[in-house]
Amino acid sequence: MLINGSSTLTSYPQPKIFEEAYRGLDFMMIIDLVMTRDALFADVVLPSATYYEMNSYQRYPDYVRLRRRVIEPVGQSKNCVMIMAELANRLGYGHLYPQSEEELIEKAFAGSPGLLEALQNSTDGVKIPVAERRYKKYELGLLRRDKKPGFPTPSGKMEIASSLMAKHGYDALPVYTEPAEGPLQDPELYREFPLVLNTGARIQSTFRSQHLNVPGLVKLQEKPLTLINPIDAAERNIRDGDRVAVSTRRGRVFFYANVTEKVLPGQAEVNMGGGNPTQVEAWRQANVNTLTDFSNRDPVSGFPVFKALLCRIEKA
Questions:
Q1: How far apart are CA 306 and CA 304, in angstroms?
Q2: Which of 91, 110, 262, 276 is deepest in the core (most CB within 10 A)?
Q3: What is the DSSP letter of 130?
Q4: Which domains are delineated in the chain?
Q5: What is the pTM of this model?
Q6: HSE on the CB side for 230, CA within 13 Å?
Q7: pLDDT tens digits along 226-252
């Protein structure tokens, strides 16, 4: 298995399931900027370079620029694209991949050699023309592959009832389904875990599990929080800043209470992102996905349910 720039064990429900799978692999390699928890199970860990250590490019809707290296790669770190290219090379497929950053950039702009030359002679980037905005594309045959007027649907119409969903055996119209783990669907479990658990809301100092090892960003929020309504907090003798235990039938994790009316009574919002070994201690011990459910998934997409679960919160 190869994992490139991803922290599975902090991103998916019930990480113990993945840890057990990792132990059974014949080989596992990690490419990343930092030592993630996944890396602890790997046979080989290759350090990826940051954007400051590589040459690349950046496109915007009306602007493009070269991203020039600021410092040389630290230690043995390397552009992760070049790591993949070297791997392809050793497997006999190197001719299909650019083998240098310069070759990668040339390939990206192969269709616009004049633009590449302009970029190489510019320190600030180059403005590029933007296509004229066109309205009512459905009337002009601009949305469908067959160029006929209409929408890119089987009927050619804007479908409220999805014929594609119906073709694959699903309801053609959206249908409300009560959460599998909720007060109405499982009242007995609700008596034991009387709060609705939501996870995954973004906070300003992190991007998922990233940056929780950067002191300047950790200062913005040093501890993982559980947002709880004042009514629910008072019933549990919980004050703002208290260390609390959040439990589901899958496990228990410790957070710190943020007593706020930003969440409704009967609900809790718990920070995600903790669980990696390079993070500060409080975050390192707070992997919210210990509480979420691997088997509770959307029946169409298979995406895990990270919200609308049931939990119990107690003062630690």
A1: 6
A2: 276
A3: -
A4: 2-127 (3.40.50.740), 187-315 (2.40.40.20)
A5: 0.87
A6: 3
A7: 999 999 999 999 999 999 999 999 999
